[in-house]
Write a structure and sequence with these properties.
binds 6-phosphogluconic acid; N-(1-d-carboxylethyl)-l-norvaline Dehydrogenase, domain 2; 8% strand; alpha/beta; two-stranded antiparallel sheet
Length: 471
């Protein structure tokens, strides 16, 4: 009898290769396929040499090589390629086989694929995978969604390959249909938020305080002692890297325009759709877009001028920057977690937010010590919001003035800090008992007779704001 393999993997770019090697390393046999066969051949003869990994040169061969029910992970580009691969696989699959989409697919695509495949009795697990190339090889955070009974069939593999923490492996069944890809989308939204906050702090340090990258690297490193955030850690490493060509700090020769594949934008769109905004994350998405208008920015700068130089006294301000970044970061996480709460009820995902925080504790890009108190906060039955949770209330009370001082000082200099200021506005709005929305209600009623609610009695009211006889 020919040997049957435990799991199939389609898509041998670096992430796919690394995931295959990780799975094999945990004792599972892998059948691997890539559309262009050169990649399969070189993978099998080099990185996968002597491993329990078989290269397949057609989808039919891949499917035939697998034990039943077949489990096949797709590590292909999100969007149409996923549909194309599924369509090409279908003729060879049997009822009960399982397709796992490990890419950054849009959750609505995942819902559609789930239903289409359900009609054919093929199971589908939309699974967010975070941690980049390193994570894929050494232990990512996995965010699977779909049918729970299907998840149990891959649980042993997922549990073995995920990053491991004291609180368990960084994987958990998250919820039905697109729950996994939704959580991954929000993970990336938070990623955008924290990256933008860090970039703004860097900008203040270089432009308002005149610090050199190596000095900033030390600061970020020391601030990270308690946070242990992956994004802060890599920021420090980036800032100390030298450009071998020029001998300059590499960061200084990198162009100031950033691309985006879309997951951050999807989070912002979704937040607007659900009416539970994520202003820091949205500001981060907008910042990336504006960064890409390099030509336009240069032309506008030549007419209007831009930020030039400033002399902000470093003493005391650096401590404030550290606190501002810390609180801004908690706010970015809290926006994302709140969006997940809203989505969980809107889409009946039934998400356990404490579990989401737990599986982000390691392996993923937003991993940080902050995830532990976030998890604890969600375990509390009286939970209202992260910013007022026992775990963070004292930090906000003690340090919000630092965030305020940073935002106000930097604003007067004319240096843009959209993520930091959005984070502060979000905080200030959420802690406001009184907002000016009474005026908005009155305006709507004035021009559109949309009615308004009163403080002193229930019901909907309308006022004839104008004397119609005088119109
Ligand atoms: C991860 C990352 C990963 C990838 C993003 C970046 O969790 O491992 O988030 O998914 O780096 O796709 O996306 P942008 O191109 O939008 O920055």
């Amino acid at each position: 009898m020919t040997k049957k393999y435990d799991i199939g993997l389609i898509g041998l770019a670096v992430m796919g290769q690394n995931l295959a090697l990780n799975i094999e390393d945990k004792g599972f046999s892998v059948a691997a396929y890539n559309r262009s066969s050169d990649k399969t051949t070189s993978f099998i003869s080099q990185r996968a040499e002597d491993k329990n990994i078989k290269g397949c040169f057609s989808l039919e061969e891949l499917v035939k090589t697998l034990s039943s029910p077949r489990k096949i992970i797709l590590m292909v580009k999100a969007g149409q390629p996923v549909d194309m691969v599924i369509e090409s696989l279908l003729p060879y699959l049997d009822e009960g086989d399982i397709i796992i989409d490990g890419g950054n697919s849009h959750f609505e695509d995942t819902d559609r694929r789930f239903s289409e495949l359900q009609e054919k009795a093929i199971h589908f697990l939309g699974t967010g995978i975070s941690g980049g190339e390193y994570g894929a090889l050494h232990g990512p955070s996995l965010m699977p969604g779909g049918e729970e009974k299907v998840y149990t069939q891959v649980e042993d593999i997922f549990t073995a390959i995920a990053a491991q923490t004291e609180n368990g492996p960084c994987v958990a069944y998250l919820g039905p249909r697109s729950a996994g890809h939704y959580v991954k989308m929000v993970h990336n939204g938070i990623e955008y938020g924290v990256m933008a906050l860090t970039a703004e702090i860097y900008d203040i340090m270089r432009k308002a305080l005149g610090l050199k990258p190596a000095v900033m690297a030390e600061l970020f490193q020391s601030w990270n002692q308690t946070q242990n955030s992956y994004l802060l850690e890599i920021t420090a490493e980036i800032l100390e890297k030298e450009d071998p060509e020029t001998g300059e700090a590499l960061i200084d020769v990198i162009l100031d325009t950033a691309k985006q594949k879309g997951t951050g934008k999807w989070s912002a769109e979704e937040a607007l759709n659900l009416g539970w905004p994520v202003p820091t994350i949205t500001a981060a998405v907008n910042s990336r877009s504006i960064s890409s208008f390099k030509d336009q920015r240069e032309k506008i700068n030549s007419r209007l001028g831009g930020f030039d130089r400033a002399e902000v006294d470093q003493s005391g301000f650096l401590v404030k920057l550290e606190k501002a970044l810390y609180l801004g970061t908690i706010i970015a996480y809290s926006e994302g977690m709140s969006l997940l709460e809203a989505a969980s009820s809107q889409y009946d995902y039934n998400l356990e937010l404490a579990e989401v925080a737990r599986i982000w504790e390691d392996g993923c890009i937003i991993r940080s010590n902050l995830l532990q108190p976030i998890r604890n906060a969600y375990l509390n039955e009286d939970f209202v919001h992260l910013i007022s949770a026992d775990e963070f209330q004292a930090d906000f009370t003690k340090h919000v003035q630092a965030l305020r001082d940073v935002v106000s000082t930097v604003k007067t200099l004319g240096l843009p800090i959209p993520a930091l200021s959005s984070a502060l506005d979000y905080f200030d709005m959420l802690r406001s008992k009184e907002l000016p929305a009474n005026l908005i209600q009155a305006q709507r009623d004035y021009f559109g007779a949309h009615t308004y609610q009163r403080r002193d009695k229930d019901g909907s009211f309308h006022t004839e704001w104008q004397d119609i006889h005088n119109i």
